[in-house]
Amino acid sequence: MLDFNSVDLNLLRVFQSIIDERSLTRASQRLGLSQPALSYSLGRLRALFDDQLFVRTTGGMLPTPIALQLRPPINRALASIREVLQHGNQFDPMSSSREFHLSMSDLGELVFLPLLCERLQREASEVKISAQQVPIGEVDERLRLGQLDFAIGNMPSLKASTRHAVLFREPYVCMTRKREGLPRCTLEREAFLAMSHVLVASSESSHLTVESSLQAAGLHRKIGLRVPHFTVVPQIILRTDWVVTLPQRVARLFNEHGGFEIYRLPVDTPEIEVTVHWHEAFDADQWNVWFRNLIIDTLREE
């Protein structure tokens, strides 16, 4: 049995950095250590756990099965230590310059960031946000490691592994340029199919669900353009007679100046559920709680 009093807890940080980075060079840079010092610490880790832990391959430092088993409890231990240390810090959002790391799609940035930044300017003007688009398959791990503080969007696959709160639910609609000859209230199935469509090839689950619903209803659209994100879509729709299918809230944002007609889809599709996610290791962290409540109060639709 290991003697706890003889264990250097800094070795846990070394372990976490190597398994995160899969590179001794990047891990040493992350920790501010020389490579010889990191290699010496890795040797101590291997002796401590009586296992190689990491095997050098052409793709980087590959963790052994023992290392993969150790990763969750070591991450939890380090998260707990960080939480304990934060109790000595004064909690004052108005004077803090802390940076929060958020993951959201391009649509999330368009809809959520202006509201969050406006709120922060009023209540904590020195607090910073770093927004990024993290692939859904990486979000859980980055939340667990503290590399992300929150993820916002329609991400049902994360519910089983994260803490989360529902912000709002909304339908998808379709939007096209205002012009003569358009129906006033309802866009019928035939008119919808007669138009050319802009298809945003997003991997978000909500877009995929709507696409599946349209195809299941026999609505095989004529695609005039495929793009990877929504940012350019309003300018394209303004210059063509094409139509795009998108979340209702985004359509209203794009239609701020009244240049578009917005219609319900000609078939029923599931409403999307937008949620904010964080990791349970930070559930009681005072900064996580504060910013989490700010997100919920700002974006939630009662």
UniProtKB/TrEMBL annotation:
<dbReference type="InterPro" id="IPR005119">
    <property type="entry name" value="LysR_subst-bd"/>
</dbReference>
<dbReference type="Pfam" id="PF00126">
    <property type="entry name" value="HTH_1"/>
</dbReference>
<dbReference type="Pfam" id="PF03466">
    <property type="entry name" value="LysR_substrate"/>
</dbReference>
<keyword id="KW-0805">Transcription regulation</keyword>
<dbReference type="InterPro" id="IPR036390">
    <property type="entry name" value="WH_DNA-bd_sf"/>
</dbReference>
<keyword id="KW-0804">Transcription</keyword>
<protein>
    <submittedName>
        <fullName>DNA-binding transcriptional regulator, LysR family</fullName>
    </submittedName>
</protein>
<comment type="similarity">
    <text>Belongs to the LysR transcriptional regulatory family.</text>
</comment>
<dbReference type="GO" id="GO:0003700">
    <property type="term" value="F:DNA-binding transcription factor activity"/>
</dbReference>
<dbReference type="GO" id="GO:0003677">
    <property type="term" value="F:DNA binding"/>
</dbReference>
<dbReference type="InterPro" id="IPR000847">
    <property type="entry name" value="LysR_HTH_N"/>
</dbReference>
<dbReference type="InterPro" id="IPR036388">
    <property type="entry name" value="WH-like_DNA-bd_sf"/>
</dbReference>
<feature type="domain" description="HTH lysR-type">
    <location>
        <begin position="7"/>
        <end position="64"/>
    </location>
</feature>
<dbReference type="InterPro" id="IPR050389">
    <property type="entry name" value="LysR-type_TF"/>
</dbReference>
<keyword id="KW-0238">DNA-binding</keyword>
